[in-house]
Amino acid sequence: MTSLVLLRHGESIYNQENRFTGWADADLSEKGIQEAKQAGKILKKVGYSFNAAFASVLKRAIRTLWIVKDEMDLMWLPVTISWRLNERHYGALQGLNKTETAAKYGEAKVLKWRRSFDIRPPKLKKTDQRYAGNNPMYKDLDSKDIPLTESLKDTMERILPYWHGVIAPLILSDQRVIIAAHGNTIRALIKYLDSVSDFDIMDIDIPMGIPLIYELDESLKPIQHYYLDDPGKIKQATRKMALQEKRYDISLPPIQWRRSG
After folding, report:
1. CA gap 261, 253 in Å, rounded
2. pLDDT tens sequence for the chain (261 residues)
3. What residue ranges in 56-204 does DSSP mark as E strands?
4. Which residues pair with 225 in a beta bridge?
5. Beta bridge partners of 179
6. Which of these, 26, 148, 15, lies nearest to 93 by C-alpha position?
7. Residue 55 belongs to what H/E stretch?
8. Can you tell me whether residue 178 is helix, strand or coil?
9. What is the spatial distance between Cα 178 and Cα 6, in angstroms, rounded to a whole number?
10. Other CB atoms closer than 10 Å to residue 260's CB: what's the count?
11. Quick one: pLDDT at residue 161?
12. How many CB atoms lie within 10 A of CB 30?
């Protein structure tokens, strides 16, 4: 048995302002910094250590991982970053206020854009200043790999080659791995690891700054998974995420999602 730690970054400035973030490079808020520190303290307290650390190229994920490593006395551990671990691209919604967007387009349509597995938000134009191709951090990417919008399905298809080609082989060689990423990045991995249906994935929320532990067998099939924090705090954090999504039925503990098949 081996363990994998998935960690959604702490609250970002865009999260604080209730904006669609996507590939926008918003930094952590002060609250997000504290959430990352707490995650590091908890991981150290229960005896975790790592041989390999991964993050997206976005600063909120990288900074979260830096802070966690600092709290764990692991600053020497290199971090491998990849655009494939980036948050889902929200297209033309990126940077917009979520409440104002829902008022403009209707809550039902925006909810489909946000939560459905294979429905994309409106595309961003390449002439838009928000287009990621204008950012030097993506200068080596083929233009076909720079999205103008993404569904969760697209995000999953972007992530899985990196999972199979880079991360999974390390885990299979008994490396202890942590991935600091984003809500939709982690939802995509959860969908794959647990064979969650296209319908059920809509109801899975990932709280910020709380380590999610996956215990895996020799084939990297999940044995169990759980959040590493006080149950009351986990429920409160998940409730906050659900309220942001206008979904109030969260009677089940946040990690007890249904599996397909």
Report:
1. 21
2. 799 999 999 999 999 999 999 999 999 999 999 999 999 999 999 999 999 999 999 999 999 999 999 999 999 999 999 999 999 999 999 999 999 999 999 999 999 999 999 999 999 999 999 999 999 999 999 999 999 999 999 999 999 999 999 999 999 999 999 999 999 999 999 999 999 999 999 999 999 999 999 999 999 999 999 999 766 666 666 666 655 555 433 333 344 433 333
3. 79-81, 177-181
4. 214
5. 6, 54
6. 148
7. strand 52-55
8. strand
9. 6
10. 12
11. 98
12. 11
For residue 127, give Cα distances in angstroms to 53, 133, 187, 236.
35, 10, 30, 41
Beta strands, E only, 78-228: 79-81, 177-181, 212-216, 222-227
Inter-CA distances, 69 with 48, 193, 238, Å: 11, 25, 25
User: Whole-angstrom Cα distance, residue 102 to residue 138?
Assistant: 30
DSSP H or E run through 171 = helix 168-172
What is the set of active-site residues? 9, 87
The confidence score (pLDDT) of residue 1 equals 79
How far apart (Å, rounded) are the C-alpha atoms in residues 70 and 41? 9
3-state secondary structure of 225: strand
Q: Are 40 and 209 in contact (CB under 8 A)?
A: no
CA nearest neighbour of 123 among 97, 94, 100: 94
DSSP character at residue 207: -
Token output for 98 = 């979520």
Question: Of 131, 107, 111, 130, which is closest to residue 119 (Cα–Cα)?
Answer: 111
Locate 64 and state its tokens.
């979260």
